[in-house]
Amino acid sequence: MIDVNGTVYQDLTKILVTREEIAAKVAELGRIITEQYQGKKPVLICILKGAAVFFADLARAIDLPVTMEFMAISSYGSATKTTGQVKVVKDLDQDILDKDVIIVEDIVDSGVTLNYLKGMLEHRGAASIRIVTLLDKPARRRVRDLKVDYSCFNIPDEFVVGYGLDYDQMYRNLPDIGVLSPKVYERNE
Ligand code: PRP
Fold it and tell me: How far away, in angstroms, is 112 Cα from ligand 1 center?
């Protein structure tokens, strides 16, 4: 595992959440889900790509016969933020009728993506739907009544990368979550 002296860390101004803090929260969330879903076989849905790292760790902290599904979603450019329209690029492989579904996200920002997704899965007849997210940026929320069932960390409105989160598809492989230096995105503007 790369450490904080690694080359990719040079582009961060600070570390916001360490790998140890993440591991502790993931373990706690795994225990909570294990207790809450006793006797059930929940379907874990990973929302690609940002949630992939969190998803892999969380799934291994849940002591239940879970199944794993992967979904890819894209937004219709900036118009999405106002219309709430998102497009499913890769759909689930299994029918979720009467299933207990847990949506696993890396970050809830405006809430537009999850609001759309939750509505879609409700429409498909899931028995229950819960949302868990690694990060939450409450300051950016636009969908006020979106219920996030479990959020590992509330963070300020800063540009964060690492542990699955990207800038221009990079930095997803950092084991910690950090704030990206403005120098990085200013040089691309
Ligand atoms: C991010 C994140 C959520 C969404 C949250 O995905 O993974 O899906 O944005 O934003 P919202 O609450 O404003 O809808 P992104 O489009 O960056 O794709 P990625 O996961 O592949 O990096």
Answer: 9
pLDDT, tens digit (0-9, with 9 covering 90-100), for 98-145: 999 999 999 999 999 999 999 999 999 999 999 999 999 999 999 999
Tokens 């992939």 belong to 52
pLDDT at 47 over 50: yes
At residue 48, what are phi and psi to the nearest 5 degrees? Answer: -70, 155
> Which residues form the catalytic set?
109
Ligand 1 pocket check for 113: Cβ under 6 Å: yes
Check if 103 has its Cβ closer than 6 Å to any atom of ligand 1.
no
| Bridge partners, 161 (sequence order) | 178
The alpha carbon of 106 and the centre of ligand 1 are apart by a number of angstroms equal to 8
Q: How confident is the model at residue 79 (pLDDT cuts 50, 70, 90)?
A: very low
pTM: 0.94
Q: Residue with the nearest Cα to atom 15 of ligand 1?
A: 50
Question: Cβ(131) to ligand 1 under 6 A?
Answer: no
Q: How many residues does the chain have?
A: 189
Q: What are all long-range contacts of 126-129, with beta carbons under 8 Å and residues at least 24 apart?
A: 126/96, 126/97, 126/98, 126/99, 126/100, 126/101, 127/98, 127/99, 127/100, 127/101, 128/100, 128/101, 129/101, 129/102, 129/103
